[in-house]
Amino acid sequence: MAERDPRRQPAPPSGEAPPPLAAEVATELEAAEGAADRTPQGQASLIVRTGDGAARVIDLTDGDAVAIGRAPESTVCVDDPRVSRNHARIARRGHALELVDLGSRNGTSVNGAAVRGGERLLAGGDVVRVGPAEIVVAIAAPALPSRPAPADAAPAGVADALSGAGFVVADEAMVKVFQVVQRLARAQTTVLVLGETGSGKEVVSEQIHRASPRAGGPFVRLSCAALPETLLESELFGHEKAAFTGADRRKIGYFEAAQGGTLLLDEVGELPLAMQAKLLRVLESRRVARIGGTQEIELDVRVVCATHRDLQAEVAAGRFRQDLYYRISTFVLRVPPLRERRAEIALLAHRFARQVAERMGEPAPRFAPAAMRVLEAHAWPGNLRELRNAVEHAVVLAEDGVIEVEHLPASVAGAEPAPVSAGPPASAGAPASVGAPASAGPPASVGPPAEDAPMPARLAELEKKSIEDALAAEGNNQTRAAKRLGISRRALLYKLEKYNLRR
């Protein structure tokens, strides 16, 4: 049992007519084997909040038990007169997570239902209350094995091995998504996954594959927004040798690479209209012909589509084909944004912190209660990506193993970010920053980033140049350069790796 302490961390319009095949979907889902089993199948964690509202996370492996009570030696000590000395216990036995009330005076509740002197199996998203303490159960689906496509068959850049990122269930909103995913996986129907950018659409799509009979086959992802229109057809369908100028050998497309498995068409709303017509033909016929070829190849591929766009609005605007929309929206699954899944923030924040610390070769830091409260109060318009970036920022700056509020980005902590000055650096009496290193004179001249470059790219270029200047001024002495920049040496080493600068 591992404890991380303390670690902080849309519905369809009414009256809208369902797309064709809805009755077929309903029949297929009803034929699936009942509701999903929600007992833990992989990683299980408890997100514990006591008096101060801050959270800590306890990981559970097989055989672990968590004692809850007023006794000082309890794993979760709740100093409250309503709580018995030995109040309850949560134990993991294989795939089962069991709550036992130890004959407490005031009982224990799970999702508002009393459990007094008895046992109760727990599932992801369950909320256990013991006096003022709240314990949220989080589970992650297992990483099922994958059968990679042959090396000579997969298109360049395709990762068919499963990432093992897991499907975290720690909030009621995601419990509902998880239950639907488990049923959809068995039903083998086409699914359209909708959600804001960074909300986890790819993870949900991958979980549909993992939980399906196709789990032993490849999971292949294509970002429809990442390729120019001239390459999309070749990447999707493949081409024969000499099919066009530059086609010096036969190429297997994404559809063929996904044979026996699942193909995720991410950002499908970005497809050009001409490409939409060709995709519709393949989906309808379940056959594909490589460019320049005459032989049609029968497909055994499940297609999952994902997008952040409102495809019905795109259809109305003439940017998305209505017939293709009906073909891919046999079932629509909406992934809630992170702001609607606040019970997961503490768990995800810890997970991201651990990943960053491992890359830096450091132990994972813990979150101060105030820092976690800030994370849980933030709106997270950038969803998981924004949270991951904020945690990475904090881990780099936290030197004593504790992430405080001041280590979080200004956009998250609530302060206005300091303006980036193009003028000379701060005076000797002012603190230095990475964006403006202190020096006796102006920095060496450098061509500034293009004025029309995105702000993150411009800031990154300024930071990189500041690091190079500091190293040059200090004769490549990293300790002195870090001091000059006003950051720790550990943070400097991380940034050297980030910007691929020579160490």
From TrEMBL:
Single biological process term from Gene Ontology: regulation of DNA-templated transcription
Keyword entries, A-Z: ATP-binding, DNA-binding, Nucleotide-binding, Transcription, Transcription regulation
Disordered: annotated segments: 1-21, 416-454
Keyword Lipid metabolism appears in the UniProt entry: no
Composition bias, Pro residues: 9-21
Domain FHA stretches: 66-115
GO molecular function terms attached to this record: ATP binding; sequence-specific DNA binding
InterPro entries the record matches: AAA+_ATPase, AAA_lid_NorR, FHA_dom, Homeodomain-like_sf, HTH_Fis, P-loop_NTPase, Sigma_54_int, Sigma_54_int_dom_ATP-bd_1
Record flagged with keyword NADP: no
Ranges of biased composition (kind: Low complexity): 416-450
UniProt xrefs under PANTHER family: C4-DICARBOXYLATE TRANSPORT TRANSCRIPTIONAL REGULATORY PROTEIN DCTD, TRANSCRIPTIONAL REGULATORY PROTEIN
Protein name: ATPase AAA
Organism of derivation: Sorangium cellulosum (Polyangium cellulosum)
Lineage: Bacteria, Pseudomonadati, Myxococcota, Polyangia, Polyangiales
